[in-house]
Amino acid sequence: MKHNTLKLAIATSVLAAGFTSAPAFSKDIVCLITKTNTNPFFVKMKEGAEAKAEELGMELRSFAGKVDGDSETQVAAVENCISSGAKGILLTASDSKAIVPAVEMARKEGLLVIALDTPLEPTTAADATFATDNFKAGVLIGEWAKANMGDAAKDAKIALLDLSTAGISVDYQRDNGFLQGFGIDIKDPTKMGDEDDPRIVGNDVTSGNEEGGRTAMENLLQKDPEINLVYTINEPAAAGAYEAIKSIGREKDVLIVSVDGGCPGVENIKDGVIGATSMQFPLLMASLGVEAVAEFAKTGKKPKNTEGLDFYNTGVKLITDSPVEGVESTTSEEGLKLCWG
């Protein structure tokens, strides 16, 4: 009896050890790295990624820079994703050039890297890019502004409120798209501020936030208080620019155009703060990105570009309550059904 009892005890012990040492089920990891975690655009992007990851049974790990332009924190996040065994990374780069060595390292380790919103430089540094056609977004608001101003466009005094001095792809694409749409010859399409059209008062940077937009607008108004057309990199910067303009009593004399399509921005269209904005779809970018990483984890298949482009185009829509002939647009009422944030 003792012998049989001992055998049973040993078998039970071995079986228990087997269960203890067996690895627990683990989900495939996908990382999302955004420029900040405060801008509504990136907040919505995170929501889209979280929802899709939960739907597909994946684990989402999110990272963000401390401020727009914080590339060092993003590099550290890429390294974290590599060491954690992630299958892929979705990235909105603060510096589309400086992040490339870290991205190359991730790809060498077998991760799928998808740029969201902001193409890397070169674009081929990532496996794929899911983004708005940022140049087209700029063209749309430029064409609209020109048509809206009519004959006054030839005497426009233009302020350009950009993102940062780094001159990343999303920044110069929107800026130059706007200028081309307005009918201004651009010099180097990968640079900002090198145009010689006398209608341009100047460029300043905003860090993509309201405070930065206000300061940049104040700086340019000191240069020329008669500015009557303002381009902004995004709607938070546009809101700040409006406050600076309003403080000198010229809010009814200045036309502001922007890019984003966040709900606060669309409300500003409705209220007459912004004349027109080009709407993006960050939730779609992120959800498609998670789907692509899931597919890659299962089959090794990588996403394809939109035909004729070097990225996957997630679309853009002009929102305005002052439609002009020849430029397709949607009202703020309809825009509020599509917006985010």
Explain this structure to me?
Helices cover 43% and strands 16% of the residues. Helix 2 (40-56) runs parallel beside helix 10, helix 5 (134-149) runs parallel beside helix 6 and helix 7 (210-223) crosses helix 8 (235-246). The protein has 341 residues and is of the alpha/beta class. The chain contains eleven helices and twelve strands. It has a six-stranded parallel sheet, sandwiched between helices. A six-stranded mixed sheet has the order 7-6-8-9-10-12, sandwiched between helices. 51% of the residues are buried.
Mean pLDDT: 92
CATH topology of the largest domain: Rossmann fold
- Percent of sequence in beta strands: 15-25%
Q: Please work out how many helical segments DSSP would assign.
A: 11
Tell me how many strands there are: 12
Question: Under the CATH scheme, which architecture of the largest domain would be assigned?
Answer: 3-Layer(aba) Sandwich
Write the CATH homologous superfamily of the largest domain. Response regulator
Q: How many strands, which pairing sense, and closed or not: the largest β-sheet?
A: 6 strands, parallel
What general outline do the C-alpha atoms trace? Answer: elongated
> End-to-end span in angstroms?
72 Å
Number of domains: 2
Q: Measured on Cα atoms, how large is the radius of gyration?
A: 24 Å
Give the proportion of residues in helices.
40-55%
How would you write the strand order of the largest sheet? 2-1-3-4-5-11
| Stretches with pLDDT under 50, minimum 5 residues | 1-24
Keywords:
341 residues, alpha/beta, Rossmann fold, 6-stranded mixed beta sheet, 43% helix
